[in-house]
Amino acid sequence: MMGDLRWAMLVMWLMACFSLQVRADTTDFEADIGGYVVGGVDHYGAFHDEDGVDSTTNTVLRKFRLGLELAYGKHWSFELDGDYQYDGDEQVLEFDDVWLRYDGFGWGGVQVGRMKEPFGFERTSGYSSLMTNERSLATSAFAPGRSEGVMVNRAGKKATWALGVFREDADAKSPRAVTGRVTFAPLNTEHQTIHLGLAGSWRDMRGERFQIRDHGEVYSADNVIRSPRFDADDLALLGGEFAWSRDSVTVTSEAMTQRVRQVGGDEWQFTGGYAQLGYLLTGEHRGYSRGEFDRIDPLSHLGAVELVARWSGVDLRQRDVGAEASIALLGINYYWRKSFLLRVNYLVPDISGNALMAGPDGDAVTVRALLRF
Fold first, then answer.
1. For residues 80 and 107, what is the distance between their CA atoms, to the nearest angstrom?
2. What residues contact 227, with CB distance under 8 A and at least 6 apart?
């Protein structure tokens, strides 16, 4: 919390300094305040509970987000997003994105502050643009999230690139990273899009204790999917992306591989991926711009309906330690205008190798309602 506050104050101070360099003219400023709230219910069986409880139902305040976006002239922009949610039994209030950006260079822009690292099609997409209630098991296990740092990037109609240096938090001993991503859309028309992407990240772990722990696409569940645990020296992560949309059909998939070097020299290799299919029953087309899909804009005042299927899996097992796990998902989404979204997901999990209990079993249902303002 204090680290986020420090970055927020730093970026706002930089913005004020830059503003003093130009003539004050209020007509050059643009401001936008908005956000969304997400709530719902999780119901799951023994698979998702570390104590093996047969049936658990939780009400969930998944996210309450309020954001401020400022723009000065053609080149300066600033974003500050506050986020409130429950994380386990704790209530968490923190800053998500806190950054200042300059786009006056011909080759792209520079962004400084706290932001998403440029890795992964699903990770870099906003929560309200997802087709499911949670990101896939593979994305959750491998793709880095928000960090403090400096990034240079450019986003065009058909191609994007980004490269940044980051540290995971304000602690001087926290892991450092260099992360980059490139995307290209060789076909991008009004009715059809093909997206290709490649991302990589190298992370200096500084001897920090490493373990992947994941809740299996159920936000309020326990972290029952786990890798081996050890002190790590460094980590290399590589991800490939493919997406295709035509009329009402959308296909997305990613594959990721991670090499972790343990302090002392031993290496561990973990892999994962997902494939996802969406079909809009009401005839809408999911638009594409700047390397990601847009939110659905219903054709009718009655709203839009979408069916979703996904398989996601990770292999965290090596040297007879760790788990192999997968999640099969079926979902239905209802969109009313761009301001309201209702998603229902049914999940069938599977695990082998190391598990917290013998014979874990039990499906899950998650329901989310999202309201934008």
1. 25
2. 210, 211, 212, 213, 268, 270, 316, 322, 323
CA-based R_g, the chain, Å: 21
Letter string b/e over residues 233-248, b meaning 16 or more CB atoms within 10 A of that residue's CB: bbbebbbbbebebeeb
**Measured at the alpha carbon of residue 203, what is the angle toward residues 201 and 208, in degrees to the nearest 5?**
145
The whole-model pTM stands at 0.89
The alpha carbon of 269 is separated from its chain's Cα centroid by a whole number of angstroms, namely 22
For CA atoms 217, 223, 228, 233, give the dihedral sign: positive
Q: What is the pLDDT of residues 316-367, one digit of tens each?
A: 999 999 999 999 999 999 999 889 999 999 999 999 998 877 778 899 999 9
